[in-house]
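@channel sequence for tomorrow's demo:
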Amino acid sequence: MFVGIVRIELFLPGAASLKDKRSVVRSLKERIRHRVQAAVAEVDHQDLWQRVALGVSVVSGERRQIDEKLQAVRNLVESAPAAQVLDWQEQCL
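structure tokens (generated this afternoon):
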């Protein structure tokens, strides 16, 4: 069994309130969950308007599938127009 874990730090330049931030974060989390079948949660910076830290994990019997799923997550996050990736820390166990 293989587990892929990634911590993603994002900057939301257009967020002017926590409500704006929640809208962007909720949409991104749902897209990751449905398209990649990954577990995702906001793990830090809950009180900041323009910063987000997401934790994402995927599990598979094959290492290749972990790499593919994490690449799909990266593609989704990088294509989000309201968010800019500041940091990406990835592990495969």
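heads up for whoever presents: The radius of gyration is 13 Å.
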